[in-house]
Write a structure and sequence with these properties.
This protein has 324 residues and is of the alpha/beta class. The chain has ten helices and twelve strands. It has one domain: 3-Layer(aba) Sandwich (Rossmann fold), CATH 3.40.50. The strands form two sheets. An eight-stranded mixed β-sheet has the order 6-7-8-3-9-10-12-11, with helices on both faces. The chain has a four-stranded antiparallel β-sheet with strand order 2-1-4-5, with helices on one face. A hairpin with a 2-residue loop joins β1 and β2. α6 packs parallel to α7. It binds iron/sulfur cluster (SF4).
């Protein structure tokens, strides 16, 4: 099956006064039609930079897309002129941002903001766009009459629902959801995730869900890519990653999740911190924190090993390695 989104060897850096941050270091991934990929990892792993770069939304300066290819439905987005790219964004690929309070315009009513997207991409009249905006608000369970209110008049959960309505305004084929529940109260996180899942299924939309919450990944995604220091260190379908995690970092992430069925479950945090992005370690980027670090890991970049669509970047699984 041809992938809806295909990213090849994406490399992104930030040129700052303090030095160069290598934020994304050779990311390759695919998302098929109606598939949901969970992109997981700690803060600073490069997840958001990956998402923004494939939509060409990286602020430049300081961001620089050094190399890489992005194909959407066979179209080379990395070669599109900006005016054509603007027709892809919001129309065929849309984004749900982490904090709706900063992504919504505080001086425009929410109805107008949703209608603006529809007018820009679908060329309908303002009246028709407003009618569709109100119907979208009903879809995300907000009364249409509230379309004349401003963002500050809504709760955090409702603002995120409005962000979701905006993302759905043009029936996109792919939604990129960047930590859509992180800024919300725990009590409304589950409702918002459930809403995203229902609408994705109803509209048959593919999704890239960026999160550090493995519980959310288990609920929503069918494929998972684990990021660390700008690289995808493990990738596979949900069952492969949840039932047979291979990379020591992925296994460490699961050890940080409490097991509510196990009375004496112990959380084991991963030792150390994410590496300084100005000075990434040589060899395997994870080696200073890895409990299974080998001599080769300190100096040699691990090769990518793959079996049945489950890939891992680790010396342990290379040919001749302890688990190869
Ligand atoms: Fe650990 Fe080495 Fe594998 Fe890196 S390559 S995760 S340091 S065992």
């Amino acid at each position: 099956m041809c992938a809806l989104l295909k990213v090849n060897d994406l490399r992104v850096k930030y040129q700052t006064f303090e030095g160069v941050v290598h934020a994304v270091n050779g990311v390759s991934l695919e998302i098929g039609e109606r598939e949901t990929l969970g992109l997981v990892g700690e803060s600073g792993a490069g997840k958001t930079t990956t998402a923004l770069s494939l939509m060409r939304l990286i602020p430049s300066p300081p961001g620089i897309i050094e190399s890489g290819e992005v194909f959407f439905d066979g179209r080379a987005l990395h070669e599109l002129p900006e005016d054509e790219m603007m027709q892809v964004r919001g129309n065929q690929i849309s984004m749900i941002f982490q904090d709706p309070m900063t992504s919504l315009n505080p001086v425009l009513t929410v109805g107008l903001q949703i209608a603006e997207v529809i007018v820009a991409h679908q060329g309908v009249s303002s009246a028709e766009a407003m009618r569709r905006a109100e119907s979208l608000m009903e879809k995300v369970q907000i009364p249409a009459a509230r379309s004349r209110e401003y963002p500050h008049e809504f709760s955090g959960g409702m603002r995120q629902r409005i962000g979701i309505a905006m993302a759905l305004a043009c029936n996109p084929r792919l939604i990129v959801a960047d930590e859509p529940t992180t800024a919300l109260d725990v009590t409304v996180q589950a409702q918002v995730i459930e809403l995203i899942r229902e609408l994705r299924d109803e509209l048959s939309t593919a999704m890239m869900l960026i999160t550090h919450d493995l519980g959310v990944v288990g609920e929503v995604c069918d494929h998972v890519a684990v990021m660390y220091a700008g690289e995808i260190v493990e990738k596979g379908d949900l069952e492969q990653i949840f039932d047979h995690p291979m990379h020591p970092y992925t296994r460490g992430l699961f050890q940080c999740v409490p097991d509510i069925e196990e009375e004496n479950s112990v959380i084991q945090p991963i030792d150390g911190l994410m590496p300084d992005p100005f000075h990434l370690p040589a060899g395997c980027r994870f080696h200073p924190r890895c409990p299974e670090c080998l001599e080769a890991c300190r100096t040699t970049v691990p090769p990518l090993s793959e079996r049945d669509g489950h890939s891992v970047l680790c010396h342990l699984y290379a040919e001749g390695g302890a688990r190869g």
